[in-house]
Amino acid sequence: MLTMPAVSCAMKPFTPLAIEVEALVKTYGEVEAVRGVSFTVARGEVFGFLGPNGAGKSTTINMLCTLARPASGTARVSGFDVAGERDDVRRHIGLVFQDPTLDGYLTAAQNLRLHAELYGIDAGVVPARMRQMLEMVDLWDRRDQPVRTYSGGMRRRLEVARGLMHSPRVLFLDEPTIGLDPQTRSSIWRYIRALQEAEGTTIFMTTHYMDEAEFCDRIAIMDRGEIVVLDTPEALKASVGADRVALGTADDDAALAALRDRLGIEATVVEGAVTFHVASGEAFVPRLFADLGVGITSVAVSRPTLDDVFMRYTGSTIRDAETASATDRNREMARALVKAGR
Amino acid sequence: MSATIAEIVAVRVPERSWRSEVRAVRVVWRRDLIRFADDPRMILTWLLQPLLFLFVLGPGLQSVSAGSTDGVDLTTFMFPGILCMALVFSGIFSAASLVWDRELGFMREMMVAPVSRWSIIAGKCLGGTTIAASQGVIVLALAGLVHVPYDPVLLLGIFGLQLLIAFTVTAFGVMVATSIKQAQTFTSVVQMLVMPMIFLSGALYPVSGLPAWLGVLNRLNPLTYAVDPMRRLVFNHLDISEAAHRRLAPGVTWWGWHVPSLVEAGIVLALGLAMLAVAIFQFTRTE
After folding, report:
1. Which of A276, A318, B126, B162 is most buried, by CB atoms within 10 Å?
2. ipTM confidence
3. Interface mutation target, options B1, B9, B16, B124, chain A, most CBs of A under 10 Å
4. pTM of the predicted structure, to 2 decimals
């Protein structure tokens, strides 16, 4: 009996969990933005938060990085409580927000130096570390130019470099690649992966991009303040189960009728192809040819994608969510205009 | 590239201590200075209005006021007031960067750093004070043009008083900035407050023999207690008649009692500290 608490205390420092969240709740007035979420993230894991806008992803991140106080529930980041041990949490996390947080009037090097000093990094290692981070994001050559002359992609790369400057144990990325071109997106992912391998950084991110979610070790899909499902991308896709079959036929209407009457399948015409879902698509194809009785000109069988997963668990498509995020970009642009007119 | 990553420079973030706070104050302070030094246009913009008052309005009104200034040049009379005006403008406008930081996002970078919020505010006040005081020095350098002597004792005295006033007006600006979320609102609130405060302070006219209502407003205006000791300091070093001294730098009175300069300076300091406290309270309260 007496040894029980001792054991649990002794184990605490060795916890392999980077993030532990237990029944976390956040309310703004009457609105429950986050309604009791629980999950854990292992050290070194890349963990993705997926969900439509307003699902509570950013609110959750804000609580984890001590910018918002939980109404109830607990969260520990790198072993420290986000409410009671704020400073210790802050020392061990890095952040890249969807909105810019750089000082545009300063140069890249000045921004990183300010950051290093704010975090109290030993001045002796700052130049070397800074060079490494800037070289990693290909901005070393432009280190002495004011950030306001940078393109959107360069700024985001600089934000990533800055977020990693102090070797955080957990890096939070809130929509890190939103509004960026595919090339910049993939290079940002390369940096994140490289650093994660070198320093064992845990990555916690939110994203609207399905192909990015594929990079994650595990994904939590959030909707209306709750986590509706949490698993590896493979398992999530498997949970949707059905493969998608798209047919080119000689007569689509006849094919739709035949599918309904002879095979008991409800199909629809999507982008010129008769489309339906079945459990194992490839095994189903021979039956089609045998039973359909309508000329088939082409067959495409595809595995479920994360889009299908998202649709199934939240009831909306990711494109709706992306439309919403386009509004964010407009807001950002309006802000830049205000700044220019200053 | 993989070689670079393999030999990555290891860094660690130390536990928070008083050193972190000193660092944070210094970072915020230095950032303000870097930006100030990088954009000389800003210096000119902020100085333009006070200098217009001094060198355009002053000589312009000289002809109508000559009879009542006992031989003292109107610009000489206005000089201490203009010094305060320059401090008010630059102190408040450098505090505006707090609002811009919030609007443009940089605030978040500071909010999530392992430092306390009061050090951010303290750094901001220090930055604004430094900038305002250095603007004040530029105006002070023009003293000779308005017949104020370059007496080392006087210059040192003015500089000390400038630091104090610069701190208080910055604290005022920071207090307004922490209670306002939008840059546009900040600008209009400041405009609504600053000009009346300057006009009521006696920066541009002597505070004796005012109409009763104006006298009351003048005594209630905090800026009065910054302008008055400044003017008394300058006038003590001018070679002018006793009559001119009495008429132009009569000093602030409360029900007939002459408030000593030291008390006035104490009022300015106390106000500055109180406003700093309010600013810190408001800033730490926001999420």
Report:
1. B162
2. 0.82
3. B9
4. 0.79
